[in-house]
Design brief:
Layout (H helix, E strand, L loop, with lengths): L11 H27 L1 H8 L15 H23 L4 H23 L7 H21 L7
Helix pairs in contact: 1-2, 1-3, 1-5, 3-4, 4-5
Amino acid sequence: MNDRSPLSTLPDPNKTAATWLAWTQGGYFLITGFWPLIHIESFQSVTGRKTDHLVTELEADYWLVMTVGVLVVAIAITLVTTAWRHTFSVEIAVLAITSSVGLIGLDVTYVMRHVILPIYLADAAVECIFVLGWFIVLIRRPQDGRH
């Protein structure tokens, strides 16, 4: 058995919380990451028009939106895999926290600058819940040097 950080070595409440968080944040990131990749028009109807295609003036060239979507999906797949395999590590929590903190910073900054619509503050609120949840999981983890 890998004693580095399997979920099975966590106390049951922490195992449940870490698994639930990984499934929930992973699922949320899958939806929000794939959405612009699959249907940019409906994504923009909710989040506002994007301008990253204006350089080429081609509707298919939303390079920035697509880049963010692909990266969010990559993080999502990592989180869902963690939940599915029932594995947990501090590194996974760090990935989950830092990705959410980064998105919170972008959401708040660019809403305040009137670059993106206030709907992004709803995303920031969800991201804050993920950050809080992961901090609780980290605080509650065993301090025996294995995790």
